[in-house]
């Protein structure tokens, strides 16, 4: 049982190496090097066993490559061979050995009450070699689960919000059409992230998936910008019934992100893994956040002045809309600006993990917050639902 546990630990270490490769924590060359060296070791073992096959009579155990190490044709007794050099923690000049026992019957000794061949590989193990990587794998798993849960809740709540606003005809107006488009942009974003997280490898590795995700993230910002612009206009105009404005808002919300995404896509295609793409992405994010924050500050000043002059009452729907928008803009904007500067390269260890947890929590639950503020907690929606029921 002890040796079985040790072999299991070794398999876990190799599994961790593979997982780290596919999760982007180690480069492909590390695993490629292990695979190449193991294949070379196996080929050399096969040639060695053919060349040294005993020609005389006598009892001996047949040599073999048992997936882990190369064992020569051996007489009865304890047999030892050096630790396989393909293991990444085995350095040149290492003195460790792995052991088997050849019985007097000419067979390799098996473990007690088992058909598994006994092997002592304790000298070839290093339980701490992948310790930091194992912790990183666990952290990445936690972040992945958090992401899926957050975006799933956002997706379901947003779909329900869209359904409610679509069915309640008394809510059909420019203001709520803007809300619904904001919901839809978050829905598409949630779908793109969930597909990426559940592991559609062929999809997630394609440029199309990355481009679509960037586009929907951009749409989130620009529909939030539309919310701010509409509120700004509404505070200046007591009655706003011109539906033609909705077409302009549609172009701004769904069309403008293309002006950022298309150059980003071209730059990513031409300069993949080079410094230009992060710089372009940083400039893109800062531009969007800066514009939204400028409008945010102007809305605050205007709203305070109107409240002070009693031009807007606390029971006015414009006040409710302003309150919801003024909650969203700083929350989403501060999140975007702060975590644009606090990149992975600037923090390490637990600080990076904490940063990722906070950032991912805010990002994944944004859709749920939007649905609550603009639909579920919206007094107008609740009143219409009660009236129609």
TrEMBL record:
<dbReference type="GO" id="GO:0007166">
    <property type="term" value="P:cell surface receptor signaling pathway"/>
</dbReference>
<comment type="similarity">
    <text>Belongs to the G-protein coupled receptor 2 family.</text>
</comment>
<dbReference type="InterPro" id="IPR017983">
    <property type="entry name" value="GPCR_2_secretin-like_CS"/>
</dbReference>
<keyword id="KW-0675">Receptor</keyword>
<dbReference type="InterPro" id="IPR050332">
    <property type="entry name" value="GPCR_2"/>
</dbReference>
<feature type="transmembrane region" description="Helical">
    <location>
        <begin position="321"/>
        <end position="343"/>
    </location>
</feature>
<keyword id="KW-0325">Glycoprotein</keyword>
<keyword id="KW-0812">Transmembrane</keyword>
<dbReference type="Pfam" id="PF00002">
    <property type="entry name" value="7tm_2"/>
</dbReference>
<dbReference type="GO" id="GO:0004967">
    <property type="term" value="F:glucagon receptor activity"/>
</dbReference>
<feature type="transmembrane region" description="Helical">
    <location>
        <begin position="180"/>
        <end position="200"/>
    </location>
</feature>
<keyword id="KW-0297">G-protein coupled receptor</keyword>
<dbReference type="GO" id="GO:0017046">
    <property type="term" value="F:peptide hormone binding"/>
</dbReference>
<dbReference type="Pfam" id="PF02793">
    <property type="entry name" value="HRM"/>
</dbReference>
<dbReference type="InterPro" id="IPR000832">
    <property type="entry name" value="GPCR_2_secretin-like"/>
</dbReference>
<feature type="transmembrane region" description="Helical">
    <location>
        <begin position="148"/>
        <end position="168"/>
    </location>
</feature>
<feature type="transmembrane region" description="Helical">
    <location>
        <begin position="279"/>
        <end position="300"/>
    </location>
</feature>
<dbReference type="InterPro" id="IPR001879">
    <property type="entry name" value="GPCR_2_extracellular_dom"/>
</dbReference>
<feature type="domain" description="G-protein coupled receptors family 2 profile 2">
    <location>
        <begin position="143"/>
        <end position="378"/>
    </location>
</feature>
<dbReference type="GO" id="GO:0007188">
    <property type="term" value="P:adenylate cyclase-modulating G protein-coupled receptor signaling pathway"/>
</dbReference>
<keyword id="KW-0472">Membrane</keyword>
<keyword id="KW-1003">Cell membrane</keyword>
<keyword id="KW-1133">Transmembrane helix</keyword>
<feature type="domain" description="G-protein coupled receptors family 2 profile 1">
    <location>
        <begin position="44"/>
        <end position="128"/>
    </location>
</feature>
<feature type="signal peptide">
    <location>
        <begin position="1"/>
        <end position="28"/>
    </location>
</feature>
<dbReference type="InterPro" id="IPR017981">
    <property type="entry name" value="GPCR_2-like_7TM"/>
</dbReference>
<feature type="transmembrane region" description="Helical">
    <location>
        <begin position="249"/>
        <end position="267"/>
    </location>
</feature>
<keyword id="KW-0732">Signal</keyword>
<keyword id="KW-0807">Transducer</keyword>
<feature type="transmembrane region" description="Helical">
    <location>
        <begin position="220"/>
        <end position="240"/>
    </location>
</feature>
<dbReference type="InterPro" id="IPR036445">
    <property type="entry name" value="GPCR_2_extracell_dom_sf"/>
</dbReference>
<feature type="transmembrane region" description="Helical">
    <location>
        <begin position="355"/>
        <end position="377"/>
    </location>
</feature>
<protein>
    <recommendedName>
        <fullName>Glucagon-like peptide 2 receptor</fullName>
    </recommendedName>
</protein>
<dbReference type="GO" id="GO:0005886">
    <property type="term" value="C:plasma membrane"/>
</dbReference>
